[in-house]
Design a protein that fits this description.
By secondary structure, the chain is mostly beta strands. Helix content is 0%, strand content 35%. It has one domain. The strands form two sheets. Strands 1-4-3 form a three-stranded antiparallel sheet, with no helix packed on it. It has a three-stranded antiparallel sheet with strand order 2-5-6, with no helix packed on it. A hairpin with a 5-residue loop joins strand 5 and strand 6. It binds calcium ion (CA) (2 copies).
């Protein structure tokens, strides 16, 4: 498992401390693919508590052998004192070919692979 620490920068004109919570972490592949090639492991996302300001969790650096790489999509939502809500996402990629792992997004600093 690879520890992931998310850095969140949230600002609001009126509210100095908007509430930020982890909404979801989605895995683009099955937890344990029937097709094999992904290690027959389950619980590929661990220690993540949705609904809380959780910025530290574990992601498994594996992907299906016949896939084109795995993507974990991490979504946070922020709500200000007026009830205005916005969401932001970050992605962690597990590329199919480990000899070519990099982040496509220049602003992305999350690459658990
Ligand atoms: Ca698995
Ligand atoms: Ca956590």
């Amino acid at each position: 498992m690879v520890p992931v620490i998310v850095s969140i920068d949230v600002t609001d004109i009126c509210d100095t401390a908007p509430i930020v919570v982890l909404t979801s972490i989605l895995n683009s592949e099955a937890d344990d693919s029937a097709a094999g090639g992904d290690g027959s492991t389950r619980q590929d996302i661990q220690e993540a508590e949705s609904g809380t300001e959780d910025t530290e969790f574990l992601l498994r650096a594996e992907r299906a052998g016949k896939g084109d790489g795995r993507v974990y999509t991490i979504t946070y939502s922020a709500v200000d004192a007026s009830g205005n809500e916005t969401q932001a996402q970050a992605v962690v990629e597990v590329p199919h070919d480990s000899s070519d792992h990099h982040c496509e997004d220049p602003d992305c600093d999350l690459n658990g692979a």
